[in-house]
Amino acid sequence: MSTPPKTSDNFIEELIAEDLANGKHGGRIHTRFPPEPNGYLHIGHAKAVVINFEIAKKFGGTTNLRMDDTNPSTEETQFVDNIQNDIKWLGYTWVGDTRYASDYFDELYQLALRLIDKGLAYVDDSTAAEIEAQKGDIGVPGTNSPFRDRSPAENRRLFEGMKAGEFTDGSKVLRAKIDMAHPNLLLRDPVLYRIKHEAHHRTGDTWCIYPLYDFAHGQSDSIEQITHSLCSLEFRHHRDLYNWLIEALEIFPSRQIEFARMNVDYFITSKRKLKLLIEEGVVDGWDDPRMSTLAGLRRKGFPAEAIRNFCIDTGVTRRDNQQTLDLLEFKVREVMNRDADRYMAVLDPVKLVITNYPDGQTEQLDTENNPEDESRGTRALPFSRELYVERSDFRKEPQNRKYYRLAPGKDVRLKSAYIIHCEGHEEDEAGNVTQINCTYYPDSRSGEDTSGVKAKGTLHWVDAATATDLEVRLYEPLFTDPTPMDHPDRDFLEFINPNSLTVVTAKGEQALASAGVGESFQFLRQGYFTVDPDSTTDRPVFNLTVGLKSSFKG
Q: How many whole angstroms separate alpha carbon 429 and alpha carbon 436?
């Protein structure tokens, strides 16, 4: 028996607490997450996953994972595998084995026969266009199908013939017999089964008829004795049919409760549109770091904890809501700032020569790994006469008095190293800076500074002799508009950001070459970066996960 928590954080929890107080289902709480395996899970699915698992956990209940695999045309085993991996990565475990709507095809078929025998379903020979026309419109009653009054015996015979493969695709469907004047258009004799001579990813060629979502979903809930079917607001109008089928079939009374979908700026969450991005070559696959898929966000480096926190902190509402990318990235920074070690990498390197440093000498300087966690210890940095610094950290002439980086006559500190004095620079015929020349104060070593020199700026750097080349992939949002789907008169592809991916060759600390796939680091003054699966020891690849601060104005 589940125990209600002392407080309810949202309306779903209030309704569940009310059911518990009334002794419904013997105080048992059982939810489910039922994705269709026709693509990868995205950030919107993450919200549904978190709601179902967290609410069940809060009430001491359990959650099923069930694949809504009733459409063999679009479903694949690879999608099933990925969905399971994503949920585990988010940190959740479902009760028992993964379930499938296809597990219940026999039972669903028998339930359909029960409706037929009760005179509550009939086989219709109308075409899809004719059925659509029969539905009428809001405030306009529909018209009965000419096949609506077939006898239960004839309907059973025809439905059995559909199952036996006697009819072609589209020639017949099974419809519920409800009310063609019902104010909810979904209850105007909805289609429950269609003929589809296609192999299923699990059942093969066993079946050539498949239930539609509205029939398979609710009845699967009842078969599994799901107490609370939590789904997104788009299914509100389906609830009337959900309840009608429960009553007509006299089966376990699951309760459907709807919550608002969560949308995030610069992301789209239509699987069809995500698939189109892949087909059009805009992105490299479902796990492209620019995608809204959980696989893409994981590859980019977003921690599962940050996504969970984002979904929880944005709450559960009855109205669709648009969340900012800033908030999601803030949640990512919170986790990564705590967990990521600090390393140095120069994204646009230019050589810096310390002219008074002994030629051929190298010393090891101590630097902290993570100032947020002293237990992470320190590491040694090699330091010698030639270094790399960021090109943007040098100006031929200072911009103003408050310019604290490199320029002729300026002093700056090199992180965990020495204070240097800029003497000048060298450039090519085109005027591009090729080398910065400096001197250093030997008694200004970090932690042992007795020079008396005051340097207001601190720069990151890497030792030229030991630096490793890094392929760094810099990401911006995939779209230039925060809501690319909110323009009905324009194709969402018109809003593709041409600068969504920029690849540069950076210079990084030598230790970064051996970082493992999925490891994340803060590159000082740059942002948080994560090792991509494309990475090798010969070609380390890092993805920009998130900047040190927000760069978006959406």
A: 16
